[in-house]
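Example 9 (inverse folding). The structure is encoded as follows.
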């Protein structure tokens, strides 16, 4: 399932940043900073698909009611990168987290569409809607907790 990979990236990144914080780098010696970094890594990971081999699949996921799906995929990828950078700047992390939460909510209809149509990304089925919804809530919570 495609969406499980970003979740694993976020969880493993969080564990790594906490370990680095406890062992060597005081900057990451708290949960919120480590979570902000993990959220940033996860969004950089997902943004990479907007220009890689999976780009065409992401374009197909955009519901037909939206014009210019290529443009939408490119813009959402850039917004993910901007949000990831913003999460790492303490003075703007709160605003970045709010913007990323809005972005997640705005992209959720494409995920619903993909799950209902049983679409694939890189030849693998998209995450079923029930699990996708749970993961969406986890991502939203992580983004908001990290930034607030």
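The amino acid assigned to each position is listed next.
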């Amino acid at each position: 399932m495609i969406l499980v990979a970003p979740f694993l990236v976020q969880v493993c990144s969080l564990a790594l940043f906490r370990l680095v914080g406890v062992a060597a780098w005081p900057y990451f010696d708290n949960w919120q900073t480590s979570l902000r970094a993990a959220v940033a890594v996860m969004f950089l990971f997902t943004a990479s698909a907007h220009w890689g081999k999976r780009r065409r699949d992401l374009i197909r996921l955009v519901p037909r009611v939206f014009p210019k799906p290529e443009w939408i995929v490119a813009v959402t990828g850039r917004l993910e990168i901007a949000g990831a950078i913003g999460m790492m700047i303490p003075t703007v992390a709160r605003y970045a987290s709010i913007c990323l939460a809005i972005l997640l909510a705005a992209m959720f209809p494409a995920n619903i569409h993909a799950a209902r149509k049983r679409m694939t990304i890189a030849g693998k089925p998209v995450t079923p809607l029930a699990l996708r919804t749970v993961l969406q809530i986890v991502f939203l919570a992580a983004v908001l907790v990290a930034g607030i």
